[in-house]
Design goal:
alpha+beta, D-Maltodextrin-Binding Protein, domain 2, 7-stranded mixed sheet, 14 strands, binds 3'-phosphate-adenosine-5'-phosphate sulfate, binds magnesium ion, 3'(2'),5'-bisphosphate nucleotidase, Inositol_monoP_metal-BS, magnesium, metal ion binding
């Protein structure tokens, strides 16, 4: 791959994810302190918030402005259905307000702000512009504006995920993790005692201490971490990035497994069986969102497994950015049959064999894949 290819796209992607992290931090703080922000349920009963819709509008508007308007193809999670309902006027107004507040701060991140605040129709257009379904050819941005919305509304972990897919392959990924904590064990904090919880009573990046943006370009062999920018420290950016690498631990007894918090999203008893059979001994870290991929890439955990119920189709925006960052940090990600994930088939990871296994290295990965083969028939999945 040409070294300079995608340089501008990646730089813009990192900047817009910083803008989005800032937006999310403010909305989450309001949500938790005053309970004034709207959380609504989508048709599948999953939550969506002002932050999900506002990040999608903000990133869509910035990418379209910078890379050529209607021609920019964006595959993203949200649409305007929920805010087009008669009783959603308050939510829509909050989204328009949040988007404009956020775009006004774009110059802090080296991006141009709009000349005048966006009107409601423009915000709706920015959200619904992200209606591409991707596919095997062409260039597609892939966005999960807030991944782990459940974690977000609980004051816990969540991520902003943006990737670029070209001709069916992820060419780079950017993952914003505004609440990535100082101590790895705080990734699990919702399971801890009240004492830990009260230490984290505020969820601003400062309280968690280590909010970050990770990014990697496919084939570069490098994955990078930038801390979130506090206050007006923009001048130092982007020189503050540092390289990250996966853990070198390959002894299962010392390895840490990450998995989704909700049993509905991944079969905890099946992964516990696999973990036991390969000799894992530590308690799993249950973490909302693609922060699990971030934890593997940063070397804070060695394994991430997700086995959704049969019939559930994984979406590309829940994995694209995380996969490339883990791979370039030295790890590997496959389905449970050992095959790389296929981002070329539209908005779903079509053909995914049973589940997802991300590891810091080959040794652990081989052991887990073999364990899946040995235990699948008796698993009832
Ligand atoms: N039934 C079911 N099975 C499997 N996966 C599902 C399911 N429902 C939702 N999702 C997707 O899971 C995304 C959140 O994954 P997490 O790993 O963060 O799950 S968890 O909150 O820790 O349980 C979540 O992403 P967001 O909607 O962006 O939060 C969903 O895309
Ligand atoms: Mg998601
Ligand atoms: Mg989401
Ligand atoms: Mg969602």
């Amino acid at each position: 791959m040409e070294k300079d290819k995608y340089t501008k796209e990646l730089e813009v992607a990192v900047r817009v994810v910083h803008v989005a992290c800032d937006l999310c931090g403010r909305v989450q703080e309001r949500l938790l302190s005053a309970n004034i922000d709207h959380v609504v349920s989508k048709d599948d009963d999953s939550p969506v918030t002002v932050a999900d819709l506002s990040v999608q509008a903000t990133i869509s508007w910035l990418l379209s402005r910078i890379f050529g308007g209607q021609n920019v193809s964006i595959v993203a999670e949200e649409d305007t259905e929920i805010i087009s309902k008669d009783d959603s006027a308050g939510l829509l107004a909050a989204v328009v307000d949040t988007v404009n507040h956020s775009l006004a701060s774009a110059p802090k991140y080296g991006l141009q702000r709009p000349e005048t605040p966006l009107r409601t129709a423009e915000v709706l257009e920015a959200i619904s512009h992200c209606n591409s379904t991707g596919g095997p050819s062409g260039r597609h941005w892939v966005l999960d504006p807030v991944d782990g919305t459940l974690g977000f509304v609980r004051g816990d972990q969540y991520a902003v995920a943006l990737a670029l897919v070209e001709d069916g392959k992820v060419v780079f990924g950017v993952l914003g993790c505004p609440n990535y904590p100082v101590k790895t064990e705080w990734l699990n904090y919702h399971h801890q005692h009240d004492e830990t919880r009260s230490n984290l009573s505020s969820t601003t990046p400062d309280a968690w201490g280590k909010g970050c943006v990770l990014y990697a370009r496919k084939g570069s062999g490098e994955a990078w971490l930038q801390p979130l920018i506090a206050g007006d420290k923009m001048l130092e950016w982007p020189n503050c990035a540092r390289l990250i690498q996966v853990s070198s631990v390959d002894d299962p007894a010392l390895a840490t497994l990450c998995e989704p918090v909700e049993r509905a999203n991944s079969n905890h008893s099946f992964t516990a069986g696999l973990a036991h059979s390969v000799g894992l001994r530590k308690q799993p870290l249950r973490v909302h969102s693609m922060v699990k991929y971030a934890a593997i890439a940063r070397g804070d955990a060695e394994i991430f497994m997700k086995f959704a119920r049969s019939g559930y189709k994984e979406k590309i925006w829940d994995h694209a950015a995380g996969v490339v960052i883990v791979e370039e940090a030295g790890g590997m990600v496959t389905d449970a049959g050992g095959r790389r994930l296929d981002f070329s088939k539209g908005m779903y990871l079509e053909g995914l064999d049973r589940g997802i296994i991300a590891c810091s290295g080959l040794t652990l990965h081989d052991k887990l894949i073999s364990a899946v083969y040995a235990s699948w028939d008796s698993s009832n999945l």
